[in-house]
Specification:
Layout (H helix, E strand, L loop, with lengths): L8 E4 H6 L1 H11 L3 E5 L2 E5 L33 H12 L1
Parallel strand pairs: 1-2
Antiparallel strand pairs: 2-3
């Protein structure tokens, strides 16, 4: 469970018993953990594999305005230059 930042859905054991297959389906499909409480103690049901968040993206044609062929040449963040600048400031 380490690294999972999603807030688990909390339910009682009775609710889990009545909706077991729906709850398990939600955990698998949505990737959101479920926290079950029984007699004051809690357990979590979490997906075995992390959810592929990129698979849920919707294709949006026409989002790139301009020539997509120029994208590989666009100047991006220069980490080496940034580190050099901050190393000077921290000395």
């Amino acid at each position: 469970m380490a690294g999972n930042l999603e807030i688990p859905m909390a339910i009682t054991a009775t609710k889990l018993r009545s909706d077991l297959y729906r709850v398990l389906g939600d955990v698998i499909e949505k990737g959101v953990p479920v926290e079950v409480e029984l007699r004051g103690r809690k357990v979590r049901i979490v997906p075995a594999e992390p959810r592929d968040k990129l698979a849920a993206l919707v294709k949006r044609p026409g989002v790139i305005v301009g020539d997509p062929g120029r994208l590989p040449r666009v100047k991006t963040f220069d980490e080496k230059k940034w580190r050099k600048k901050w190393d000077k400031r921290l000395k």
